Amino acid sequence: MKDKTTMNILFIGAHPDDFEYYCAGTFAKYAKQGHELFVAISTNGNIGSHVHETKEEISEVRFKETEKALSMINAKLIWMGFDDEYLIDSRETRDAFIDAVREARPDVIFTTRKMQDYNPDHDITGYLAFIARINATIPLIKTKHPPTEKIPVMFYCPPTGVMDFQPDNYVDISDEMDTKIAMWKCHESQQAEWCDTTFHCDVTAGLIRTCEHFAYQTGSGIKYAEGFQLCKTWPIGVAEPHKMLP
After folding, report:
1. Helix axis angle, 18-32 relative to 177-185, nearest 10°?
2. Which of 15, 145, 225, 231 is placed for a possible disulfide with 215 were both Cys, Cβ 3.0 to 4.6 Å?
3. d(CA 27, CA 131)
């Protein structure tokens, strides 16, 4: 029987390395507290390469990289498998997102902020996660897993590069930063092969600077933090949502 003091925590992201970049430190902290973790990825990352010859090959590589990373915190992978860069709002995608929420049965969801990122998959994923959060409770919507009983709290992760994102909640991940970086580096295909070549910058260094930036914003002297925005659209889910963070 599940301990009543533990929670189910779900991240819903667009690409196989999004989780590590946005909130792996927070999930590593949840893992230390004994919570059950789920990571749902909507696309298979099948165009994220300059060196692999086929979409099938890179998709398989990225699936294995994700499994390796999530094994470090014992998180369960929910792989939706839609084509990279072609995610759309459709009956098929809505049902897949709803079923992911029903499978994880989360108390808390983390996802990308809808309509605020450079990548359309990130935006659509955030929008579909927002819809699925409530629709997962509706019995007349039929998917593989049964409806959930409650609407979870939702937190938005910052868009890539942070831009004008201002967190209203922070998690000190100073003790988990090494784990976050190690998980990110499991995605070897996305290092120099893809990110450095495509974006002409050191994305790993950007990940570190982002966590330093959020830590500095707290004014508390901590070294690294991840920042989030609470989804304040009704219903929030609980009276004091910040207490759902680790």
Report:
1. 140
2. 225
3. 23
Q: Determine which helix (DSSP H) or strand (DSSP E) holds 216, and give its type and residue range.
A: helix 203-218
Res 195: pLDDT: 65
Per DSSP (E only), the strands in 83-176 are 108-112, 153-157, 169-172
Which residues lie below 8 Å from residue 53, measured CB to CB, with a gap of 6+?
none
| pLDDT classification of 1: cutoffs 50, 70, 90 | very low
Q: What is the Cα gyration radius of the chain?
A: 17
Q: Domains of the chain: which residue ranges?
A: 8-244
Six-digit token string for 214: 């959020």
Strands 153-157 and 225-230: antiparallel
Fold classification of 8-244 (topology level): Rossmann fold (3.40.50)
Calpha distance 121→18 (Å, rounded): 11
Q: Tens digits of per-residue pLDDT, 6-21?
A: 999 999 999 999 999 9
**How far, in Å, CA of 230 to CA of 78, rounded?**
23
H helices of 120-193, in order, are 120-135, 177-185
Is the pLDDT score of 25 beyond 90? yes
CA distances 59 to 20, 42, 63, 82, Å, are 17, 12, 6, 10
Identify the helix (H) or strand (E) that includes residue 78. Answer: strand 76-82
- Return the pLDDT at 182: 97
pLDDT in tens, 121-169: 999 999 999 999 999 999 999 999 999 999 999 999 998 777 778 999 9
At 202, give phi and psi (nearest 5°).
-85, 100
